[in-house]
Amino acid sequence: MEDRIALLIDADNVSAKYIKPIMDELSKYGNITYKRIYGDWTSPYNLSWKEVLLQNSITPIQQFSYTYGKNATDSAMIIDAMDMLYTSELEGFCLVSSDSDFTKLASRLRENGKLVIGMGEDKTPIPFRKACDIFTVLELLLEDSTMENTEKAPAVSTSAKELKRSSVDVVKNQIEEAVIKIIMENQNDDKETGLGEVGSRLLKLYPDFDVRRYGYSLLSKFLETFPKLKLKQDGTKVSVMLYEDKSRKDLLEEYILQQIKYAGKQGVSLGTLGNRIRNRFGDFKVHDYGYSQFKSYIQSFEDVKIEDDGEQNWAIYVKNQES
């Protein structure tokens, strides 16, 4: 029997455009027994919800805004959640909001042994994310369900793209180190590390961890991008292991190629690539690999080309350009 889950939405802090991705994502976790949304339905701000509520059989709960500037839906949503906790046989709750006011509610539900799935926009404060068992960023769900919009998206400045990519890279480094630690702990106990264990432990460390943030739909494909990790499949069992037989040169070259591939069609600037290599490999010196210039070293990689935009050089993976 599927787990029974209550879906509670804070209309004051979530847009109606996310409803289909929310429903699709939540269906992975069980049967949605309650579907309620809280807001002031006399407000023009909530008119966009009317059609999607009918299409998805979501019950609107009216809450008048008694005081200007206060979110009147919070208390009603919290009271209903607590009523459901004690009077209904539910295994989990999905709280959809970008508001940190639901942090205590999420903690209380977890204390009572309930699965708590949080969903909110990228602006959602860290305390609410950490209070949930699982937290999913709504923008990622929307991108995942409407991939065709990617080509129509407005251009982002080079500096903005570089900044976003760099911040994600830092998080990826943290995740790789966390997985390595999990594997080493298991090795000390003579245990193998299963893919499922890695996924569940990463969620405990980072409740908002989602491989879609990095452009992948499967955890296995995401882990394969790390040069220090390898996956081994035996029937339906997948184990995550450390590469122990690779030289520093092999690890370096794998890392460089992965960084260039991950950058996509635009590529990665040589300045940024050099910084990432030094951050990962510490005392990297291009002279140790037989080259006098970093540019020449990168040009030596198969399927990699260098483009000059007049300001800086970019390393681009040529196969990304093939149809």
TrEMBL record:
One of its GO terms (molecular function) is RNA nuclease activity. Pfam families: NYN (PF01936), OST-HTH (PF12872). Residues 167-246, 248-320 form the HTH OST-type domain. It comes from the Bacteria. This is NYN domain-containing protein. It comes from Schaedlerella arabinosiphila. The lineage of its organism: Bacteria, Bacillati, Bacillota, Clostridia, Lachnospirales.
